[in-house]
Please model this.
Amino acid sequence: MTGVMGGRSGAGYGRPLRDDLGAARPRPRIGWLVAALILDVVLVLLLVQKEVPLSWGLVLFVWFNAFLYAISALKRRAFLAGFLVAFFIFLLSRATLERVFDFANPTVDLDDLEAISWMLLLAMGGILVGYAIARARRDSEMPAELDPDPRRKSSSVSREDVRRGALIVYYCALPFALFSVIQSIGFVAGASYAALYTSDYVERTSGLAGGLLQYAHEIALVAFVVYLATLPTFRSARLPVFLWIAYTGSFMLTGRRRDVAVLLLFVACYAITRNRITPDDPWLTRKRIWVVAAIIPFVAIGFAGLEAWRGVGSADAGFNFDALPGFFYGQGVSVTVLQNVANYGQHLPDQSYLLEFARTGFLPRLLGFPVLEGNSEARALTGGSLSHSLSWVVLGPNAYMAGLSTGTSFIAEAFVGFGLAGCAAIGFVYGLLLAWLDRLGRGGITVNILRLLIAQPILWSPRGSSTGFIQTLIAPSTLAGLAAILLLASVGSTRRGRRVRAGEPS
Model:
């Protein structure tokens, strides 16, 4: 998609950056520093009073200050802030609720907690160093205003052409994607949530028709992301965004919450960033923030009720407010992945789990690897997936084959491969990536498409694969979706050029 950029489009280019919701004014750095200092003192006093182990106290202190740093300039660090929210919920919430707020008896002993703390500290340290280095270098190169590169103004394919092409692909693929979800809902109704991950489900959805339906979902997602990368106005984007949220919300009827959770976090980060990119067309206003704030508790209740309905989580109070504490406590179970790799790492199959992306899509066919799907012995022992291998070792073959899983984490995969040094290194890489995401709006549309394509896997990485973003970029469905959009955009550009040459309005 080289050279795709149609000059100026969308409000806000060429204007100074503004505060999150107000008029342009300098950031209150001194106020933030004083507030951060006061909050740090309160946090330290609380940790001392609760006699929290020093290692875990350091983890909370580092995370808290990283989060303060992110929200102190939220429009410029929205993806860092979103990532840190996911980081806390999935990796820090359980032990924090246990040891700081006495929600439950500690489930991790002190020795394991110290090992986990070192993994988390080195990973967060790497993230902050990578992010700071990338932002310091890039910020020194940034122009004061968000002007597009003048060299791109003569491109034959405009931003509007790409936007139209993305919408055509999106609306064509969405009905088939919805039909695929309806099929999954019917399968779960006759079995269970965990059955979605068994070989039986893979066999039932295999074949040409099943493959096309799965591709429809992935291509629709690509088209949705490309559409957002063209920076549409809030008014024009309301219907596509609403339809995608509604469609993704239907996944909850299958017991899958990952897609909904990561989408909501992604949309929030994107909306905040749009306030920086297009201040004359903000996606977040005070009124919209109040509406979202009123909806969030009910979304959380829905997640909590889903946890109880699935029968595999810790929440058991159903669809009501009583389920919320247990629900958030249950999300922190991902930290046990770090505990498991520390205790069972030596029993795992000898594989490079950082190369899982080479076992999916067309790469395994090129490299001579078998293409493995679902829970199977072959995938657990030779598939290069830490989630599958760890589930086989920790849960046992019977539970694993029934569809249960321990999950994974980008930190755990790095630790298995390279120990604590790997945790710091993967953190550094993710810091660079997060800084790159927070530059959304700068550069051509091709760069912004790549940014948004990898954003959701990165936001999910505290509970997902370390190389999920690579899998997304090289997936056949991604390449097919991008090719279809580029073809339609090129056709639209050609037709527009003919109209211009004929003297008709473009």
